[in-house]
Design goal:
single chain; 153 residues; alpha+beta; 7-stranded antiparallel sheet; 39% strand
């Protein structure tokens, strides 16, 4: 899945999630013909992939070295993902996926996503990231440097 990395053009508040900070990153993802289901809609599983792509690109902008995560002990681990499908995405389209930070706990960070085609909201997502130690396979406190970057809401 290829995307067009974009800097956030506006620091607008997401209207869908009252606890969200400003949009921290957005990316454009073209819909491919193979993304469609039997009804010619984007397959539901792809919405999660679109959110994942946005999240991984955003990680890199805040200093999380995604291609080398296997070299680090403390890493984020996706422990929950929800998507509310508002309207179907059809081919052809380019999906604009945004990410904002919601609640930041001692170990868990909530990321909030919106999926737009043009000026129409098609889906929203709520994901939970738990920071874990690879060595112990246990949760750990959110590293201070990551916490500081996330709290720039």
């Amino acid at each position: 899945m290829e995307s067009s990395k974009l800097p956030v053009t506006t620091a607008k508040q997401t209207p869908y999630f009252p606890n969200a900070g400003p949009v921290m990153y957005e990316t454009l993802i073209p819909v491919r013909w193979g993304d469609l289901d039997a009804f010619q809609h984007v397959n539901n599983t792809l919405y999660f992939r679109y959110m994942e792509q946005c999240r991984l690109e955003w990680f890199e902008t805040i200093g999380i070295d995604v291609p080398r995560l296997d070299r680090f002990d403390i890493v984020p681990n996706l422990v929950g993902a929800e998507c509310r499908f508002i309207r179907a995405i059809m081919y052809p389209a380019t999906v604009r996926v945004t990410i904002a930070v919601g609640d930041v706990g001692s170990k868990v960070v909530q990321t909030l996503h919106e999926l737009w085609v043009d000026d129409t909201l098609h889906a929203v997502g709520d994901c939970k990231l738990l920071w874990m130690s690879r060595k112990t396979n246990r949760s750990v406190d959110l590293p201070n440097d990551v916490r500081e970057k996330l709290l720039l809401k």
